[in-house]
Amino acid sequence: MRTRIFTLFSGLFLAVFAAFPALADQTDPRLDSLFEELRVGDAIRAEENVARIIEIWADSQSDTVDLLYQRAELSANNGAFDLSIALLDHIIGLAPNFAQSYALRGTVRLTQEDGAGAIEDFSRALELEPRHFLVRVTLAEILLAGGSKREAYEMFQKALEWNPHDENARDRARYLRREIDGQEI
Predict the structure, then answer these.
(1) Are 138 and 102 within 8 A, CB to CB?
(2) In total, how many domains does the chain have?
(3) Is pLDDT at 173 greater than 70 in this prediction?
(4) What is the pTM of this model?
(5) Distance of alpha carbon 81 from alpha carbon 86, whole angstroms
(6) Whole-angstrom Cα distance, residue 48 to residue 128?
(7) Which domain holds residue 55?
(8) Given Cys at both, which of 59, 85, 163, 180 links 24, Cβ 3.0 to 4.6 Å?
């Protein structure tokens, strides 16, 4: 069961990252206005804003790192997980503050059933980019798979603070709220 959950969510995470090209990193000042619009704006522009945010996160502002990152993504998407990890290790050595490299390495580690390594990488990604709603949703699913319903609910809620238009996260949070309400606190 746990293997199937890791595979499902790591596959979804990889698919989301692969769908968007690179443009700038988590320190880009454009992110603030995009997040504000995502948080208070309507659902019509939400998908576009999410796409722009992911594009901005995916650019390290280094041609070398960007090329290595693209190769790591491609390797992961083609099932060459060891190569992807090796490339991501190198990227992290070159650009230790590039949050997206930790997010992708965490996803690859999750695919390889290295839950502890994945959580470590996701935690580092959140240290660098606390608004990373994709990482938060993935961590919520890991927590839920481990039976930590309350912590999973809280992580979904934190993801929804930054992207309130994520229907899956909203549905999962509602489900968990009902589950938690039925338990003693």
Answers:
(1) no
(2) 1
(3) yes
(4) 0.81
(5) 9
(6) 23
(7) 2-181
(8) 59
Query: CB of 163 within 8 A of CB of 46?
Result: yes
> In this structure, how many other beta carbons lie within 10 angstroms of the beta carbon of residue 104?
27
pLDDT tens readout for residues 96-116: 999 999 999 999 999 999 999
Name which residue leads in pLDDT, 141 or 185: 141
DSSP conformation class of 56: H
HSE, CB side, 13 Å, CA atoms: give it for residue 13: 32
Instruction: Tell me the mean pLDDT in the region 56-81.
Output: 95
**What is the separation, in whole angstroms, between the first and last Cα of the chain?**
27
Q: How far apart are CA 110 and CA 9, in angstroms?
A: 8
Q: State the CATH number of the domain containing residue 173.
A: 1.25.40.10
Task: Bin 22: left if φ > 0, else alpha if -120 < ψ < 50, else beta.
Answer: beta
The token pair that represents 165 in the structure block: 């238009």
Backbone angles phi, psi at 59, to 5 degrees: -105, 120
Give pLDDT, residue 18: 41
